[in-house]
Automatic annotation (TrEMBL):
InterPro entries: Rossmann-like_a/b/a_fold, Universal_stress_UspA, UspA. SUPFAM superfamilies: Adenine nucleotide alpha hydrolases-like. This is Universal stress protein. Signal peptide: none annotated. Pfam families: Usp (PF00582). PANTHER family: STRESS RESPONSE PROTEIN NHAX (PTHR46268), UNIVERSAL STRESS PROTEIN UP12 (PTHR46268:SF6). Belongs to the universal stress protein A family. It comes from Natronosalvus hydrolyticus. Residues 4-148 form the UspA domain.
Length: 152
């Protein structure tokens, strides 16, 4: 199956695993000439915090979540790595609960695959993925690849 679009969904916990996420998405996308959608999903509180940190002025600027995502360090790092690997990409930002919003974004971009990161869990937590990963795995409109940071 040829992949046309892969969604790499990232959030606040993914800054430490950008190398693993980039390696995985390049492995999936490069041979197929696939477009990668770098999707940063923010909860409302995370979004408001990022607007403050990145010096957006909501009183003087029309704020587009895609612009906010594009200025976020995690997305900038991933974009640079994809450029170096000659993989085409788009940047999308979205605000909402992580799992549901990732699934909606996958549907919106007509993704053929979703790639998400996760973290190591306690023995009890291993029985169930984190709530975000679990929702994406169970509700995604396409196959999902789960990437755990190597350092964990």
């Amino acid at each position: 199956m040829t992949l046309k679009t892969v969604l790499l969904a990232v959030g606040p916990g993914d800054a430490e695993r950008t190398d693993e996420l980039a390696e995985t998405v390049i492995e999936v996308a490069k041979p197929a000439g696939t477009t990668v959608v770098l999707g940063h999903v923010f909860t409302r509180d995370e979004y408001d915090d990022v607007l403050d940190r990145l010096d957006f002025d909501p009183d003087h600027e029309a704020i587009d979540p895609n612009d906010v995502a594009g200025r976020h360090a995690t997305i900038r790092d991933l974009a640079l790595t994809l450029e170096e690997a000659d993989v085409s990409y788009l940047i999308r930002g979205a605000v909402g609960e992580h799992g549901e919003t990732i699934v909606n974004l996958a549907e919106d971009v007509d993704a053929d695959r979703v790639i998400v990161g996760g973290r190591k869990r306690s023995p009890t937590g291993k029985a169930v993925f984190g709530s975000t990963a679990q929702e994406v795995l169970l509700s995604s409109p396409c196959p999902v690849t789960f990437v755990r940071a190597e350092s964990e």
